[in-house]
Amino acid sequence: MMALQKVDTMRISSQKDTSRLTFKDFQEAVSWILRGGYRLQLRSDGVVEVCHSLPGGRLVTQDILDALTPFYREFKRRLKKPRGWPRNVELPKWWSDIALGFTITRARASECPECGFPVAILVDFDMWNEWRCPQCGVIAEPCLPNIKTVS
Ligand SMILES: [Zn+2]
Question: What Gene Ontology terms describe what this protein does at the molecular function level (predicted)?
């Protein structure tokens, strides 16, 4: 089974791209995805779909899928609904922008005071944690210091 799949139909292009797309690590792949306006979505069958979300939609080529495939397991781990996300609420369509760009440790049912989104997510900023609204980004609760043991 292919781990990653494109959403749009790939058109056959006559021009050959000589430089193959490669990423040295997960972070580099993520910055490329976010900068380029690509979005990933985890399907219930475990396939990660790749699409382009900005106006003028770029093609998702086999070259892109090949370059992203080494990071499939990490994508899948991050794209899953976080622990505590209510079953009856779908992830927003921009979920991959948040899930790839931030470390989200938990979620819980909590209505946003600004936009009414029914879920809040706990974002780990390394030194502190914040409950944020995944729709409008507002801080849903005062931030909590992240107590970590110093080795
Ligand atoms: Zn909100």
Answer: metal ion binding
